[in-house]
Every structure is written in structure tokens, then in C-alpha cells.
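Mods, move this if it's the wrong board.
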Amino acid sequence: MYRGYNLTSNIINAEIDEFNEFYEIGKIQNNKTKKSIQENLNHFTSKNGVISGTDLQKNWFPEVKSHIFLSHSHKDEKIAIILAGILYEIFNIETFIDSNVWGYSNHILKQIDNTYCKNTGQNTYNYDKRNYSTSHINLILSTALNKMIDNSECIFFLNTPNSITPASIIDKTTSPWIFSEIATTQIIRKVPPKRLNIKDSKYSAQMKALNENLKIEYDIELSHLTNLNENTLWEWFKKDCNSPENALDQLYSLTPLSNKFL
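Not the wrong board. C-alpha cells:
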């Protein structure tokens, strides 16, 4: 990960017809990732009946290459897909939508629980066994998402009332996955792309100063993410770029790190 953005723009209204084309483009890209994740979900149990956590993680989360990791509320999935479609159509940027991973957690848990967690001769589940299976799946999921964040150059957090509690209580979330992902972006290593030719010592000093101003709490801490509003987003979309990497460089130029971290 190099940079993270708090996307506060309301530029996308999923109900407006003009976004239908981008939604279809985003769906095609998104379905490619879904397919690669779904293909081997039924093959994670060994011959002796022992579940391999390593194999499950590999099958659930194969190597997916993306430029941007997009964190969002499940209620905003259509907006996330539209945004992915816009980024792909304009800049050929590949976006990883996080619900491709956590969206399958209940599916996996149901498969495991139906096989291993039912009370003998009953259609009810054993409480302790269910807790055990859930802890394993959630930890595997969390690890998979952390790896994807680490491998992605750029992180977008889709900040809407569906992801952040509105009104008098702000910067809080009811989603454990959003909390986990944003917390990960605070503590994960920050690696500038080699093409930017940023000296490690200077960048390390920036990141050290940035991290010293942050605390990991159950409240959502967003000060380490650069705000990305509607005007800047439109300005970026109008840039003439010859590659996804060049497009991201243009975004970084439009949104330089705050001087207090330099």
C-alpha cells in the first residue's frame, strides 16, 4: 500500500440511468474476480475430514492483481461497482471490491456448520462448535483482506451514511469489516512505487510522522486517509493518462501529502 483516500464525494447516484453503462462495465470486471474466488470453494476438505485453513485461504482468496482496493458498506455495492467501472473505462484501472471476499463468509460458514457443527440427530447447531468455526473463518478472511490491502497500491474508502454513522455521532461504524480494513490501513507498511523515485528515508519520515498522530480505536480513525471530494475526482477523471500507473500518479499529484508530514 502507498496511499489511502477517504472518498466523500456524492458524485455517484446509483439510481441515475447515465451510470448504467459503467455499472455493466464494473460488473464484468467484478465477476472475473468473483469467478476466481468461487471456483474452488468446495475443495477445501482433506480426505481424512480435516479442513486445511491454508488451502481454504488459497482457494477463497487466489492471487488477484489490482491497482485499487475499495472498502465499502454492503449497502453501497452498486455504487462500488459503478466506481470500478468508471475507473476501468477511463484509466484501465483494476479495482478490487472487498465484498468479493467477505460476501462469501456466510456461505462458507454454512457449508462447514452443516457438516461439522450440528447436534447429533438434530437440525440445531452446537453453540461451542459454531463459535469455533466462526472464529476460524473470520480470521482467515481478515488475513486475506489484509494481504490484499498490502498488495494494492491505493486504497479507497467509500464514505457514505451506510458505512459511517451519520448525524450527531460521526466517524463510527457498525461494520466489523470496515473497522478492520481501516485499522489495517493505519498500521500496514507504506511502500511507494519504484516509478515515483521517492527516497526511502524521506518517505519513512513522512509515514512515521503520520502514524504518530494516529491511534487504533473502535471509533473509525480517518485522518490518515486523504480526503477525495467531487471536484478533485472530476478533475482527475479529465486527465489524459496512458496507463493505470500514470493515472494513479496524476491522482497523487492532485492530492499531495500534507506539509505537516513532510
